[in-house]
Amino acid sequence: MIGGDGWRKRSISAAVAIGLLAGCAGPTTTYRIRQRAFYYDPGRLATDYDKEYEYIRTRRDQLGKVDQTTAELKDDCYYDYACTWCDGNGPWMKILQGDEAPKTCKKASDVECAWCEEETLSLRARGAWDAAHPQLTGVALSGGGIRSASFSLGVLQGLDALHAMPRIDYMSAVSGGSYTAGWVQAHLGANQYGAYRDDLYYEVAGVDFHNLLSNTDDNVEQLRTHTQFINGGGFWSGPELIWEYLWRWPISLTWDVLLHIKGNYNEIHPITVYQNRIERTYFRGNPPANASAPPKREAPLTEANRGEFPTPYLIINGNLVNNGYPRGNQTTAQDSFNFELTRDEVGSDGLGYIESAAFDRDVESVTIEHGIPTEVTVKGTDLDTSQFRISQAVATSGAAFDPDGAITAVDNKWARIPAAYAASYFNLNFGYETWNYARAYNGPFWTPLDYVRMQTYQRIVEPETDARWIKVSDGGHYENLGVAALARRGVSCIITVDATGDVEWHFDDLKNLRRRLQLFGLTLELDPTLLDTARRTGHARLLIKRGNTAEVVSTLLYIKPNADPVENGDSHALNCRTPNHMATTWCGADGVPHDKLPSTIDAIRKIKWYQDTKKDSTFPHTTTFIQWYDWETFEAYRLLGFQMARTYLPHGADLTKCEFNDVSGP
């Protein structure tokens, strides 16, 4: 006799099988497919990005309110670690926290903190929204694995110390940069699935930027403690990782290589192993047993930017491997396309854009009008708990070990064939596969034909935009800085964090950005003098113009990790009045050198200690293949990011000028 549980499971399996055979799909939902301008068109911005602009306008209004600005600024003005130094050029501000505060600071008086009132007024004035000229600001966090994630965390901490985070409208991230960007989104806001402690007793969630990014609170401490990432978790982590890989190997070999059946079968692919490791490190946090909230690793992408504390609008960038002509546009074929994942829409110029709730669902039908896909009907509803998650978006953006996307990115189409097959046999085809939401023929009649295509020429060449399935790989295979997504939105000031691996300082990703921007009718000016400045100091101000005109669309405050800044190409220290993130002294208006703050000197010494002790000749461009950092490596990159951001980037109130700070400070 069959037991109750066994009978129930077999009955459910039989019902599912009968439903599939009968074509019973259950509830369905129809979503619109939007086509954005293929070229930069200021007149289309308000239409193409209406939901994003509305969020930013609402966020500015919220941050401009008295209670919100008070919450943002009171910690810096009225707590014991708020200190003010003055010289002939005005006040200097240094935020110190924890036990270090009373050793180096005095409590700032109301007079010394008068600038906080100016901050409040500035935020309120910025809340006024001009739809035609919104003056958007953004931060772009590049790819580069855990190297970029650690350095980017330091940059965000530096922006927070400069009171610039409330003024950042967009956060665009690629691959490793999306680790940190996704972590911010999942953990900021006390009501973001509740602030609780995880099973290792780390507090999960911050009530505001100060709390989340505080170097002494649980959130950053948890990242610091678990920086080993791939092998973090003790002795059994290695065997566990091997087992997660091995049990998928025969299934993936049969399904993906021998049968070559494509679609939404990611659980058998190694991207799930990679995703699990990202979730453990950056999206950990199981709530208490008696809590009803889901763990943060299950936060759907549609919930990004919906916490009680308004965060910069998140864009996670991937690469659409499918090539050919954009759907509905037969003018320009491309080897690959951008692929953007946001809370409102997911998509690509190659396919169109759909509501995020519709992505990664089984496609029932697509409506085509005049050759352009306009609507898609998918299985399920908006309340479906299987919605695409933030952690999945991050894993997709960081799927660097994918030969399809990587080799396509270097324009070597035929070299891809043996590499892809070799990778497949060893189950190394990272990349997210799902159903194409922009092709019309998905019924039972076309299934045999799709299978024939999968078995024949799709084994040899990449799927095209009209294939039944799509594949999304690492965003760095398309554009590794995350800048293109912001420039096409008309973001006028972009803080660009380039933590890509570039030991020789060839600026390959900047050059690739220039090539990608040309597709949108934009031109990135790469003056050799400016690149030499970036090579020597780690930062440069770059311009993106419209076509060949003088119209500036975006200004880039470009920062690249540099632990040995020099002036004029020699080994002499920078002039003491010139900002230098690795100098332990600074000069006031009188030109007299002063020691920097003890905390700043301590940070610089830690970075130099790492260089001298670890003898890592590639620091700060450690290879991306290293995805496990010890405590010292994590801190070296984080501190370097913090030092560079706080030294060179403008104070929040000056961010609209989009100019680097040109005077040294403590």
Separation of the first and last Cα atoms: 79 Å
The main β sheet shows up as:
15 strands, mixed
Structural class: alpha+beta
What would the principal axes of the Cα set say about the shape? globular
Number of strands: 21
Rounded mean pLDDT is 77
> What is the strand content?
15-25%
Helix content: 25-40%
User: Helical segment tally?
Assistant: 22
Radius of gyration: 25 Å
| Uncertain stretches | 1-24, 66-70, 72-113, 568-574
Characterise this structure.
This protein is α+β, with helices and mostly antiparallel strands and 666 residues long. The protein has a 15-stranded mixed sheet that branches. A hairpin with a 3-residue loop joins strand 9 and strand 10. Helix 4 (66-78) packs antiparallel against helix 6 (115-126), helix 7 (145-161) packs across helix 22 (631-648) and helix 15 (403-409) runs antiparallel to helix 16. The protein starts with a helix and ends in an 18-residue tail after the last helix. The relative contact order is 0.14.
